[in-house]
Structure formats: C-alpha cells, structure tokens
Amino acid sequence: MDVIHTVAELRARLADERQVALVPTMGNLHDGHIELIQIAKPRAACLVASIFVNRLQFGPAEDFDRYPRTLATDCERLSQAGCNVVFAPDEQEVYPEPQEYTVDPSDIQDVLEGAFRPGHFRGVATVVLKLFNMVQPQIAIFGKKDYQQYLVLREMVKQLALPIEIIPAETVRAPDGLALSSRNGYLSAQERIESIALFNQIDGIRQALLGGRRDYGALESEATGCLNARGWQIDYVAIRRQSDLREPGPDSRALVVLAAARLGKTRLIDNVEVDMS
Fold first, then answer.
1. Is 30 a catalytic residue?
2. Would you call 189 exposed, middle or buried from its count of C-beta atoms within 10 A (0-12, 13-18, 19+)?
3. Which of 5, 30, 33, 120 is catalytic?
C-alpha cells in the first residue's frame, strides 16, 4: 500500500490506473469505514482512501482542533483491508491559497444538519469536489449514516455532470445498535450505555410508521420528549422523504427518520430508512 501526501505524487501513482474507487474519510477509522473499503474492493482495480480533516466543514465552536488524528493506526487498518493507496495531504496541499471558490449546494443544505451547522455542507461539497479532481475516481463510496451529506454529494455529482458513480453504504452498527462514529470515542462509559437511546427512539418511530401511524409531528414530539427526559439536548428528530428531505405527505412511502442530539459534550447523529411500498 502506498501512502501519498501530495497531489503530484498521487497523479503519478494513478496515471496508469483505469478504474479507481475513492473512499473519502477524515481518519480515526472504525469498522464502518472498513466496510466502505470492502464495498469498493470488487468494483475497482485501485482503491484510494483519503484522510483529511477538513477545516471548512467545521463551525467556529466545533471540534476541529481536538478531532482525533490517528494516521499510523489508520494506515495499518487500511493496509489490512486491502486498500491500495492512502492519500493523506496536509492543509497546505489541499488549500494552497484561501479557498474563495466554493460549492454552494441547493436548499437542502439549510435544513436539519445545515440549520444547526451553517456552512457545513458548503465545506463538505467543496472539499469533496477538490478530492474528486485530485483523485479522478470513477466510483466513490459514502455511508448513509451521514444521510444528508450523501444526498448533497449525490446531487452535486448529478448536477455538475461529474463522471463518477456514487455508491451508498448502509450504516454499520455496534451489536446494541449504536451507529459507529469517530465521535463515539468522546463518550464516557456511562454515556456509551445511554447512547443507544437515540437509535431506540428513531427505530421506534420506524416501527410506528410501519404499523400505520401517520401523525408525523406527534411521533417526532414523543421521541423528543423521551430523550429530553433522559438528559439529552435535542437538535432535531425529523421524519422526511428519502429523496429530498422534504416533509412527507400522507401518501409518502419512502421515508427516513433522522435525529441529532447531544449527550454530555458529544453530538451524535443517526437515521433509519422506512420503506412502506
């Protein structure tokens, strides 16, 4: 496996590769990231994982400075998983000058995560487009745990006519149901036990929808109230259409239940799809 830090080296390494798959990450890898690698492996001769903590997608009060940087351990895991290239540029390599040209997603960037993290999806879309231009993959894999991010990037590729196939990957969970996330490492032992409550609430909404309930606002309020009573700070619990994250109507069949909340100092997000066709 090659570990590469500059765009020039990367392009030289990939010059003769005919089918490249990219798995973009911010490092501090867990089993969910490794699952993305496994999904990519049969689809391309050359697998590239990027590791870059992108300042543009962090707000001023967020955890950019303390986000774990674990490059050596990440490279060991990627090598064992069969990755061919790790692209780990520093900030100067990705942003050699102030990034004045940015990608401004559609209105989807302003709801849910975007409402609580202004500018987040602009930062995500901008760095992913730069990574696409640097790596020039034919395939890119994104996890559905970051559901809104996946939709933003899927639409960016579609509307900008990029020659890249976006492949979604299902959320990987711990045995008790907690969605794997690099930020789970911030949880204390007691918080880790409590953290499963977020998944339990949105999965409860999923079951209620499959059971015939359509009082979306009441379902959201009930889950919010339960989490508040357990000491969580809720940003949102929302039932939306899978296609565009707009509010569903009575005849909507492909839904997704999304939630974001803080447990202590750790902000967790999760979602579950609901298909009622």
1. no
2. exposed
3. 33
